[in-house]
Design brief:
By secondary structure, the chain is an all-alpha fold. It contains 16 helices and no strands. The protein has a single domain, classed as MFS general substrate transporter like domains (Growth Hormone, Chain: A), CATH 1.20.1250. The protein has helices at residues 11-42, 46-74, 76-96, 103-127, 134-141, 144-185, 201-208, 211-240, 246-258, 260-272, 277-295, 302-316, 318-324, 327-330, 337-366, 372-393. The radius of gyration is 20 Å and the shape is globular.
Length: 395
């Protein structure tokens, strides 16, 4: 890691930053499960509900890189705390809404807070880490998205049943306040993060004038397409084709997301032992492609199809850490980490945003979920090629 001279990792600081990532990720996870309650209370149309669900992805696609650049200039610690505060403001705006008129604005503000934390927090993790352990700590940080989403899915049902959607919003707000305090209390471990003056466009060019980050951003898009194909497909399949209860569907869906966490940690451990990130991406993408064959095959028993879901998201979990941790290798100085994180976030959300309607269109045209395999297999093949190109680069 450029500029890191710590002899020991400040683990409480790493934990505090990871916590704030998990909490802002809960802002993503809370909407899909609370959407029926919002539609019922405010009379939202399908189109309005769709805009609420797509708000975060649309923001990341449009402004991910720009927000990363701003974070590098503003300072990672200040930008992370600002992101937590902005997320809280968006949540409170949603709670104050009496007729649904502010819901989209509140989601957009929460989305800006999420982006601010997502691009700045890795810089804080890197600053609090010893050089020898940075791959491990970045692996831990990379768990924030699946950990936040699965935690939200598990905690939401009792809250929604007894307190409605506002109970879930209040929970996230409380956790945002806790994570803000945790990061602020550990600020001494981030003291060296902004000592070097940002050089403006020179720093941006240093970060982006190399092919590997762009290859990794495309890899993240291909991974996200496959991941969300399964995450979106599974609850719909269990409800429409197998008529399982909502509680069982929530549990099975949360587990599929949660196994991504040990995959993230395993990816960090493998990188720590100097496994080439390009080869790691290529092998994981191959496994994801083979798993998707089992998932979308009508001839495979349900138990094995579900096991393939776990394999796809679990083994695939090594890819986010392989991509996100590369910023500390590819950035000439810490002042470019946020820019690269913004680029990767943009790629990931592009894959999610484009992949879901693409798969829906393919399935609608054929009338069979099995046809979704053509999309996931193509994304897997693309990711394998991209991983091998990254491996050849030697980065």
């Amino acid at each position: 890691m450029p500029g890191t001279r710590r002899a020991e990792t400040a683990w409480p600081a790493v934990a505090a930053v990871t916590l704030c990532g998990i909490v802002v990720a809960m802002n993503i996870g809370k909407l899909p499960i609370a959407l029926p309650y919002l539609r019922s209370e405010f009379g939202l149309s399908l189109s309005e509900a769709g805009w609420l669900a797509a708000a975060f992805s649309a923001l990341a696609i449009l402004f991910g890189l720009l927000i990363g650049i701003i974070a590098d200039r503003f300072g990672a610690l200040r930008f992370c705390l600002l992101g937590l505060a902005v997320s809280g403001f968006g949540g409170m705006m949603g709670l104050a809404d009496l007729n649904g008129a502010l819901l989209l604005w509140s989601r957009l503000i929460e989305g800006l807070g999420f982006l601010a934390v997502s691009v700045s927090a890795p810089v804080l993790v890197a600053t609090a880490s010893a050089s020898a352990q940075i791959r491990i700590t970045m692996g831990i940080w990379s768990c924030y998205m699946p950990a936040g989403a699965s935690l939200c899915i598990l905690l939401a049902p009792p809250l929604l049943e007894h307190n409605g959607w506002r109970g879930l919003w209040w929970l996230v707000l409380i956790l945002l306040a806790v994570s803000f305090a945790a990061v602020a209390l550990q600020r001494r471990h981030f003291s060296g993060v902004s000592k070097r003056r940002h050089e403006g466009m020179t720093d941006i060019r240093l970060a982006l004038h190399q092919p590997v980050p762009w290859l990794l951003a495309l890899t993240f898009a291909a991974y996200a397409l496959q991941f969300f194909a399964v995450v979106i497909w599974l609850p719909t399949f269990l409800q429409e084709q197998r008529a399982l209860s909502p509680g069982i569907i929530a549990l099975l869906s949360a587990l599929v997301i949660a196994v991504n966490v040990p995959g993230n940690l395993a990816g960090g451990a493998l990188l720590h032992h100097h496994v080439n990130r390009g080869h790691l991406i290529a092998m994981a993408s191959l496994v994801m492609g083979l798993a998707s064959l089992g998932i979308f095959s009508e001839d495979v028993p349900d138990v094995l199809r579900y096991a393939c879901c776990l394999v796809l998201t679990g083994v695939g979990g090594v890819i986010p850490v392989a991509v996100l941790s590369s910023s500390v290798v590819l950035a000439p100085t810490p002042q470019q980490i946020g820019t690269l994180q913004g680029l990767y976030l943009q790629g990931s959300n592009f894959g999610q945003f484009a992949g879901i309607p693409l798969i829906a269109g393919v399935v609608a045209a054929s009338g069979q979920w099995q046809s979704a395999f053509a999309v996931t297999a193509s994304a897997s093949a693309v990711a394998i090629v991209l991983g091998l190109l990254v491996a050849r680069s030697g980065k």
